[in-house]
Amino acid sequence: MRGSESPEQRARALQRGTLVHRLLQSLPDLAREQRFEAARRYLARAARDWNDDERKALIAQALALLDDPRFAPVFVAGSRAEVSIVGRLPRPRGGHVVVSGQIDRLVVTDDAVLIVDYKTNHAPPAHAKDAPSAYIRQLALYRAVLANLYPGRTVRAALAWTETIEIMEISAPALDAGLASALAR
Questions:
Q1: pLDDT digit string (tens) for 116-132?
Q2: Beta strand pairing call for 112-119 and 96-108
Q3: Mind giving me the DSSP string for 3-23?
């Protein structure tokens, strides 16, 4: 648990994260004018124990992120949500690391690949260099697997902070260092 969070507060935060992920998974595929009502119907079922104001605030947050021009490249036509990824990467000293996970949003174009991982933390870091190393390692592993699947394309990775509506691209050197760290374990 973070700080002085009670188990109930932690459970609510986890539920909130799940709900945000689900909204960001399904709403981009709908016409802009259909999103609010679809989100309202979904949260009426999935967040029954939340009051109307809490549900409306969550909808407003998700819609604000979707409408933010900085996120336009994340939600372009053809981008995909909740993409499973599996691969094996060689360790420098022999053996392999098995990579298995779920990419929150994946964008593949003719010359590039973008991996986006949603983070619902309440207090994201101010700078990419301060992002938790576990997040960087995860993105670095995904990036390495996708680089093998999409040779010749630049593979970029970013964290999308849903509470502050910020997108934080992680630099190639930081991802390279994260990969080296992950493969050395």
A1: 999 987 678 989 999 99
A2: antiparallel
A3: TT--HHHHHHHHHHHHHHHHH
